[in-house]
Fold:
Amino acid sequence: MAPFTIRWGIISTGGISTKFVHDLLVDPSSREVSDVAHKVVAVGSRSVESAQKFVDKFKATPDDESPSWGIKNGVFDRVKARGTYQEVYDDPDVDAIYVGTPHTLHYENTKDALTAGKNVLCEKPFTLDSAELDELIALAKEKNLFLMEAVWTRYHPLAYAVEEVLKSGKLGKPKRFTADFSMDFPMDDKPTSHRMLDPVLGGGALLDMGPYPSVWAMLLVHRNPYNKDTDPKVLTSYQTVYERTNVDLNSRWLVDWKGLCQGQLLTDLGSAGLREATAVLQCEEGDLIIEYPPYCSEAFQIHPRPERDLGTIKEKSRHVHPIAKGNNGMSYEADEVARCIRDKKLESDRMPWTESKIVQGWFDVVRTSGPTATATMKGHASK
Ligand SMILES: NC(=O)C1=CN([C@@H]2O[C@H](COP(=O)(O)OP(=O)(O)OC[C@H]3O[C@@H](n4cnc5c(N)ncnc54)[C@H](OP(=O)(O)O)[C@@H]3O)[C@@H](O)[C@H]2O)C=CC1
Ligand SMILES: O=C1OC[C@@H](O)[C@H](O)[C@H]1O
Structure:
C-alpha cells in the first residue's frame, strides 16, 4: 500500500527548521518506516530572500548527504519560497505547519495556522504561558485540527525502550527522581538580542532547556505505571538571574507526584550538566539512568540498588538505542504527526495536550515566582 503522505509548510528558516527539513528529506526506510511519508511544499520566512536561500541550499545537498534522498525522490520538488508566514498558512497544498520560531512567537504562529485551517506541530516550549496554550487547544478542537508540541524526544527509540522497562515492573515503585539539562552557553559572547538572552523572545534557561528535564519527568515518573496523580504540582522553585538581560541563568524546581515521589528538575546555562546521568529514577529494586544529552539520548543504564543486596536487579546493564543513521532525530515526531492526521486524531497519545499543559503549568509557576524580566510577562491570550 502507498504510504500516507503529509505535505508540510515550514515556518521560519532558523536552526531548528533546518534540522527538521533535513529529516523530512531522509529516506523513511532508513528508520524502517513505510506507512507514512513527507513532502515539503512551502517555506515561509520574514523575507523571501531568506526563504529562497533555505530552499536553494537544500536543493544543492551533496549526493553523499542523507537529505539528497528526498531531493532525488520528489520530497522537495514543488516547494515554494514565501516572504510571509501567512502565505504558507493560506496555501491549499499544505496539510500541516511546522512552527520553528522563537518561543514567544509560537502562540501567534500556531493560532494563525489553525485559524487558516492547518494542522500544527509547534516547537517547545508550546507557548509562553498556560492561558495561551488553553486558547490554542480550544481552537484546535473547534476547528477539528491536529495540534502537538514538538517534544521530539518522546518519539526516539530510547523513549520506547525505557517505557518497556517501566511497564515490565522490574524496577519496582519510584522513590526519587532527578533530571538536569545544563550547558556552558557562551552568554557573554552573544548580543543581547539573541533568542537565548532576550526576555521578549522568552530568553533564559527555563523555557528553552526546561522542557528536557520535564520530558524525562513525564516519561519516567508521570507515565510510570505506579503513578496515579494526574496533576503534579511544583512545591518550590528557585531561579538566578543573568544580569545583562535579566533572564534566568538557571532554574530549579521540585515537583510532587502525590503518593509516589518527588522530582528535582534543573536547568543551567552557566555550567554543563553531568554527561553520565542526565535523568535518574531511583526505584525500590534499582536505578534507571538516562545518559546525556537529554534531548536525544541514545543509552540508558540499569543499576542495582547500591545498598541492598536482596534487590531483584543483580548487575549493572547498559542499553543502547541509537537514532537512525543520517537523521537528526526529528523524523520520528514528523512520522507521528502524519499517522495522527491519517487516523483523524486531534492529539497524539504519546504527547497529549494534558501533558503539555502540566509542563506549561510548571513553567508558569517557576517563571512567575522568580526574579527575572519574564516573571511579569503575560501571553497574548490573557491580555
Ligand atoms: N527540538 C529541538 O531540539 C530544538 C528546538 N528549538 C526550538 O525552536 C525554536 C527556534 O529556535 P532556533 O531555531 O534555535 O532559533 P533561530 O534563531 O535559529 O531561528 C528562529 C527563526 O525564527 C524566525 N523569527 C521570526 N521572528 C523572529 C524574531 N523576532 N527574532 C528572531 N527570529 C525570528 C527567523 O526566521 P525567518 O527570518 O526565516 O522568519 C529565525 O531564523 C525555539 O522555540 C526553540 O525552543 C531550538 C533548538 C532545538
Ligand atoms: O531544544 C533544544 O535542544 C538542544 C539545545 O541545544 C537547544 O538550546 C534547545 O533549544
